[in-house]
Amino acid sequence: MTEELLLEINRDFLRHFQGARNDDIPPELAKLEIGGISEQVYSVLRKIFSEYEGTYSKRIETFLGDKNPSGLSGINTYPFGEPTNNIYRDFFGICAERSNLDLILDKALRHCELVLSHYEAEDRKAVIILTNKWNDYKFHKKYFSEFLRYALIENVIFVFLLYSDYAVTLIPFLPLSLHDFESFRRTYLKRLHDEGLKKNYSDKKGKVEMSSSFSVYNASVENIISWLRQDEVAIPEIQRPFVWEAVRVRDLMDSLYKGYPIGYIILWRNPDTKLKNGGVSKGKRILIDGQQRTIALKAAILGDEVVDSNYAKKTIQISFNPLEERFEVLNPAIAKNSAWIDDISKVFASDFNLFSFTMDYCKANGITGKEAEVSQKITKLIAVKGVNIGITELDSNLDIDEVTEIFIRINSQGVSLSQADFAMSKISSDTNYGGNEMRKMIDYFCHFMKSPSDYETILKNDTAFAKSDARKKIDWAVNQQDNIYVPSYVDVLRVSFTHMFHRGKLSDLVSLLSGRDFEKRIYSQDVEENSFKMLRAGVEAFVNQTNFERYLMILHSVGIVSVDMIRSQNVLNFGYILYLSLKAKKLEASLIENIVRRWIVLSILTGRYSGSADSTIESDIKKFTEQDPVKFLADTEAGELSSAFWNNVLITNLETSSSSSPSFLVFLMAQVKKGARGFLSKTLTVRELIEMRGDIHHLFPKKYLQDNKITSRRDYNQIANYVYTQSEVNIKIKDKSPSSYMSKARDMISQGKAYYSGISDIADLEANLAENCVPVEFMDMQFSQYHEFLERRRKLMAEYIRDYYENL
Known about the structure:
By secondary structure, this protein is an alpha+beta fold. Strand 17 (516-517) and strand 18 form a beta hairpin.
């Protein structure tokens, strides 16, 4: 159990912190204040990154080779903090790729065991590990329970610094700040206590703190179903589709019938809102955990249809055999067997007559005389409606981040609930300002973009929306063929919200839709009404066909012709936010397009929106809308894209083996924009090769380099060794050296023949090399000149990208 819970924690933190940064040192590390450890770790990292050349991987391996008192290959550890009896409180370890991560993790745990005999639990301790192998949850799960115990009970902070060739990313194992850590600790210990694990995870006083921000009570199955039917409880968007198989509904009914526990249901009450007339409207509750169970109860007991992930409605009929007291999913055999009640929803109907049914049932099955027994079993089934289920209701004073954190910890499936999910729940539960229709507009628009074939099914199942003006506004999406930007409901919300409200945190949207007045610190109906109105305007701007297609045109004009060419959804979203916001300022179309194009490429090159970027997004849109956008762009370019960036930083960023590197992807965009041809292709362009999923070829063939003792993947897979080319060219080159296969090309051209894809002229051959940033000297190169070639080509690629950007 504990291992599974900890997998959830790491999965969530990796999801939030996996965005690579281009900074030499993760700035979050400097915020750690644990007995001076941050300063000392910072100094070690700076030493590595300043004294040694090459990629981060090369620098770290060189450092380990030079500074390795442990005597172990590719691993080193450093004690930090003031020692007590020569025992250092804090631990810092470095683990290179070729070493065994298990070894350094074992050393860290042994360090914890030693330290705990010399330091009190109240003393904060730290374990920081720099590695490039922390990417497999299951591989390291044997350490998780120990890490958890030390973190929660003994006050140890675990931080992992995950490095690649071109970036170092901070991955905190648990919240870094003292406030967040203590809040998480209380929540987590409460969960462990509820699961019967208190004996293993109690604090020093043997008690687990109980939060005053929630209440626990019981509610009957009948009451819970009533809440859902009367819309007193809203369901977060991520939980909305019903995904259970019918057999799980059967098992749920069987558990209730037998009196087995089915788990708590968790609700969160929204804040109360002050009405215009001075009255108060009580906040609606949102179902945080237990949606599948509650919808299953409605389906089985009331016979309600459920909507699956494809928006198809279906019924789930559960059958019951009173004689055997057994539940099954209805099938043709059961339907023909009179011993079975084919659909138990008949028993729960208001007009069900127990006496008549019992008499008819016994007569049909030849068991006259057993009426009392059958009646008793049916009565027990009906009594399921009165079974109490535990309810945990979170108080309205909890903010979105705290509620989201609680959901992640308690959800048994490890599902992550986002702020957008709460916003969609708030929208869908609204009955005063058209919220539910707006939710459908967002939801169906996104679905039409991904699965247009479901159009008729959706309209058939939702006749009210089919007749609405909202449906007409999104009909065009069914015929949209471009897949470069296929937004999810999260993207629609983020773009619409930031465009209209100039805010970056979606948790603010939930507050605004609840009527939050940030200045007066109250909840009012005026704010609630205006927020729904503004958001609706933002959504309609997003789904507007002209706006959307014009933005796609801008993306194409940048050189983006494949969804694989841009890996940051934040960049795509902000590009659309910027387009809509500048259009609202009534700038000229050509100026808008120029600003958006340049900003998209700048954002990709600098990693501006990597990771959690809410604050950066909010700051940028405010500056674009409150200042002169042309001046803000120019000022940002001067700071971010200085000569130092083009001549040093970009060249360093191109020193990587990752074909998904932002710098390499921008290089491909530049080639597409400039109409560059594939390597050694007469007419076929890079754009056409990308669209046709052509081959990425090694200029110095991989096998050739391996045969000549260049065997590291990081070396032979350098992106400066990559070009797009036709498969037939790749086949002809095989594993020959550049001097060999280029000599063949020149010989054939001198005879007036074309050997590679139609190029039959030396000048055209050299032009083709230039279009691919390949130096002419490459044609005479051998493996001994490989690293020299990489350096020269990286500079040419950087110059090519700069020219492309400056001419956007």
